[in-house]
């Protein structure tokens, strides 16, 4: 479903006076507020095709109603998010969960909603019905060349789908690894994986990027063949200039200093993309910014600093994507919260007084350096984010409008109570 524009206008009208007051108060002391609002308006976060339905754990899945039943309905849902916040103008497709039957038609539908196709995601972490060989003991690392070949072929297919849709990148996340000591020869597993990735890399169109995503553990609990940023960087370096490391916030060992990882990957020109989520324990895939907002801020602080140091375009030079799972919330409301959290944090990072921070660092003024970062983090930048939405035609309060318009109730009416979106 789509919202009529006048409904968004009416909603904004009712909140306009309060918004103007807050915006004026905040920007009175912010000389570069206009630049920040412009950057916020440009920033887009891709929504993964598997996040439109309710997620589950290995114990249970409690489906909500009105979930999208097809790729077309998923695109419609993202179109709705994008209408509300104007910052969700991209979709990241998962193959084979969301194979476009007619690439041209899907591309046209997405374009109607102002949505482009971000990174394509391949899947060799589960067996599909009718699949010849099993990935039980890995895919690209597998001891059997025929299994490795099958995994490579799958990735080549994913690239083909992506080309038809106008995507420009492939994300490879491998669950490969081992559950017990002795199960794998680490060196051979690495070499097999590298060779397989090289075959996929060779098939990348000239303008494409390949993102090598790492994860510390799960589903394998003893070793992971792309287990950390060092291993990912090793693959990406050996593969070549089109290969990059992808950082997923939930894929580290506890207390890892992710902001430092980000800074160094950017320094090396090898950070390619980002998967946002939040966690308390492991790969919890919770709503962005719901558990550790200060960590997210410190990461964004490095992203902005590092991208500016290399003259990168904040909006287009990295792949920005949410990778989360919504087990107890309405997935659309949850995604609105996640995108909002990303924009708030981005705005805070843009507030950091870079010159002052550099001078504090140069003078070993630790207290001043901390003050500068925390000043930015403790600023309520929500009026800046709301203003960016207002100027681009979105809603001042997306979740409020989503609820006022009873969007979920209407989706349940259209699609039924017992629909299940593809995904895990
Ligand atoms: Mn991920």
TrEMBL record:
Keywords: Isomerase, Manganese, Metal-binding
InterPro entries xrefs: L-rhamnose_isomerase, Xyl_isomerase-like_sf
Annotated signal sequence range: none
Gene Ontology MF, one: isomerase activity
PANTHER family referenced in this protein's UniProt entry, alphabetically: L-RHAMNOSE ISOMERASE (PTHR30268:SF0)
Protein name, entry field: L-rhamnose isomerase / sugar isomerase
Domain of life: Bacteria
Organism: Chryseolinea serpens
Keyword Cytoplasm included in the entry's annotation: no
